[in-house]
């Protein structure tokens, strides 16, 4: 056999969790041709991988690059971590399906700056635009329950009529037929949060019939995190659908430690059902700043919310509830404004606050932090994003090594210097995968190397039902990462997030060398991936 590439003498960690073994990996066109002793085999290119790990390209099961790839497909922050596939469409808010009447509101609820033509209506049309966009890595897309609900019935806080529920089911069928890998929810975000459990079960049955899975940003990750996991597992049982709990955590000091209870529920359910979760190796999350605004103020969509914040009659009640909570606010936790750092500030006038905590910015202006936060949301038209330090390190250390976990960055693909390289993002977009090796495998010794790789490759590939990806096997697609297990580490910090990870030498996408000893290829060969038939 003549190869295009032979990766020589690396420790082959195949993605199944099996112990690594030293071998050569031969690639022919887009596939793995052979694994074994290929020292004398003819090949166009030989990569010397001695003392390096050769693994399947990492799959980021929880990513938010729905739109950024339409603006800049180089995806450098992810490629340089060894990632070859992004799962987008998480947390319920996807750019499609979209109805013309709610297009502006949907755009404003998407996290961070908006890119792309927004000419699409159906999920298929959106995927067409994504397919046509040149991109360095593969994408598998979930369809968002929030988008489906908005397209069928707007942003209202009410239950669907029978006709509206039928419309939601039709939109779900359309998305699954077009190639969605499953459905996501964002049950803290309007309009998704207005949907009850029965609605989620009804739509999940549709998704399940197509072999898709249910990825849930749950109704509460704070005071009600235990009840929220119960709801999620109930959807899984009653709709007979595989469950993926998104970015699992217990937010707010008063809730730390509750992950031991939730994990007990997950572990028990996993005995009889496909239940897994994703997690990132940081104690801070990131979201729209307006997530700290009470749910009642979001009714009717972002324009209605902004109007309430501007209304001198209503604003004091918003302020009060942000400090004290409301009885129906599932995701409420007591906010310490020192823990809320501004990640993206849209308005030029306030841009200087980027990277500061709301507390620090308010102090400089001798203002009340809650009041300042509301002004920013209004000024930015709901585009302000935050990094919120709300998790316990012990909780992350407890959950991440569990057999049901996968690694998901919850981040986006950034390329510094390009249109997507702005803001002060959470460092997870640059460092998630290398950080798992640096902190959990090397420093803390909480995870075997092979298990870490499995959580990033074979395990998510199986959940997504990808065709011959996620493992290194003859005949499988050649998505491969080659890294130094003693040197791989994240460099991005909360202070300086736009810093690439280190220790990843080569990244191969469909047999094409996309990262070659630090140099990025200009050929972008990523595809939109769908479920195996
Ligand atoms: Zn989320």
List its salient traits:
533 residues; alpha/beta; Urease, subunit C, domain 1; TIM Barrel; 3 domains; nine-stranded mixed sheet; six-stranded parallel sheet; 17 helices; 21 strands; 31% helix; binds zinc ion
Topology:
Elements: E1 3-12, E2 21-28, E3 31-36, E4 43-48, E5 53-56, E6 58-60, H1 68-71, H2 76-79, E7 83-88, H3 103-109, H4 123-132, E8 138-141, E9 143-144, H5 145-153, H6 162-178, E10 182-186, H7 197-209, E11 213-217, H8 225-239, E12 243-245, H9 259-270, E13 275-279, E14 284-288, H10 302-310, H11 315-324, E15 340-344, H12 358-364, H13 369-379, E16 385-389, H14 393-399, E17 405-407, H15 428-443, H16 449-456, H17 458-464, E18 480-483, E19 504-509, E20 512-516, E21 519-520
Parallel strand pairs: 1-4, 1-5, 6-7, 7-8, 9-10, 10-11, 11-12, 12-13, 13-17
Antiparallel strand pairs: 1-2, 2-3, 5-18, 14-16, 15-16, 18-19, 19-20, 20-21
Task: Describe the overall structure.
The chain is of the alpha/beta class. The chain has three domains: about 5-55 and about 470-520, Urease, subunit C, domain 1 (Roll), CATH 2.30.40.10; about 60-285 and about 395-465, TIM Barrel; about 290-390, no CATH class. Helices cover about 30% and strands about 20% of the residues. It is built from 17 helices and 21 strands. Strands 1, 2, 3, 4, 5, 18, 19, 20 and 21 form a nine-stranded mixed β-sheet that branches. Strands 9-10-11-12-13-17 form a six-stranded parallel β-sheet, with helices on both faces. It has a three-stranded parallel β-sheet with strand order 6-7-8, with helices on one face. Helix 9 links the parallel strand 12 and strand 13 (about 275-280). Helix 8 (about 225-240) packs parallel to helix 9 and helix 10 (about 300-310) packs across helix 13 (about 370-380). The two termini are about 30 Å apart. Bound molecules: zinc ion. Zinc ion binds near residues 91, 217, 246 and 247.
């Amino acid at each position: 056999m003549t190869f295009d590439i032979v990766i020589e003498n690396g420790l082959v960690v195949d993605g199944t969790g099996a112990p690594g073994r030293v071998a050569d990996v031969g690639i022919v066109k887009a596939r793995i041709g052979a694994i074994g002793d290929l020292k004398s085999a003819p090949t166009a290119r030989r990569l010397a991988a001695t003392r390096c790990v050769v693994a399947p390209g990492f799959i980021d099961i929880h990513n938010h690059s729905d739109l950024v790839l339409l603006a800049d497909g180089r995806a450098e922050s992810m490629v340089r971590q060894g990632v070859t596939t992004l799962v987008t469409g998480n947390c319920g808010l996807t750019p499609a399906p979209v109805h013309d009447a709610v297009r502006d509101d949907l755009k404003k609820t998407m996290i961070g700056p908006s890119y792309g033509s927004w000419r699409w209506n159906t999920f298929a049309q959106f995927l067409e635009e994504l397919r046509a966009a040149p991109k360095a890595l593969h994408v598998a897309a979930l369809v968002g329950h929030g988008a489906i609900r908005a397209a069928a019935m707007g942003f209202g806080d009410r239950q669907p009529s029978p006709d509206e529920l039928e419309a939601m089911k039709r939109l779900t069928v359309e998305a699954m037929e077009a190639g969605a890998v499953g459905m996501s929810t964002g049950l803290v975000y309007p309009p998704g949060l207005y949907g009850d459990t029965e609605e989620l079960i009804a739509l999940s049955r549709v998704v399940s019939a197509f072999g898709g899975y249910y990825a849930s940003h749950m109704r509460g990750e704070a005071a009600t995190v235990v009840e929220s996991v119960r709801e999620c597992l109930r959807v899984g049982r009653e709709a007979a659908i595989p469950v993926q709990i998104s970015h699992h955590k217990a937010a707010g000091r008063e809730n730390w430690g509750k992950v031991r209870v939730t994990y007990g529920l997950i572990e028990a359910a996993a005995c009889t059902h496909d239940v897994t979760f994703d997690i990132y190796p940081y104690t801070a999350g990131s979201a729209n700043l307006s997530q700290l605004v009470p749910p009642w103020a979001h009714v009717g969509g972002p324009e209605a919310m902004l109007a309430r914040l501007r209304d001198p009659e209503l604003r004091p009640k918003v302020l009060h509830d942000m400090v004290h909570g409301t009885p129906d606010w599932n995701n409420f936790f007591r906010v310490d404004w020192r823990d809320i750092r501004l990640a993206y500030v849209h308005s030029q006038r306030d841009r200087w606050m980027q990277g500061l905590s709301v507390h620090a910015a308010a102090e400089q202006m001798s203002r009340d932090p809650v009041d300042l936060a509301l002004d920013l949301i209004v000024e930015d038209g709901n585009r302000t994003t935050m990094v919120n330090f709300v998790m316990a390190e012990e909780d992350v250390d407890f959950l991440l090594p569990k057999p049901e976990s996968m690694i998901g960055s919850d981040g986006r693909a950034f390329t510094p210097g390009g249109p997507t390289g702005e803001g002060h993002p959470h460092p997870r977009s640059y460092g998630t995968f290398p950080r798992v090796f640096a902190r959990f495998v090397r420093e803390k010794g909480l995870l075997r190397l092979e298990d870490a790789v499995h959580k990033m490759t074979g395990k998510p590939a199986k959940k997504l039902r990808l065709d011959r990806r996620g493992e290194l096997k003859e005949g499988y697609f050649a998505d491969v990462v080659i890294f130094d297990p003693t040197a791989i580490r994240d460099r991005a910090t909360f202070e300086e997030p736009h810093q690439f990870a280190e220790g990843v030498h080569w990244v191969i996408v469909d047999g094409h060398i996309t990262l070659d000893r630090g140099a990025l290829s200009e050929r972008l060969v990523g595809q939109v991936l769908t479920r195996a038939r």
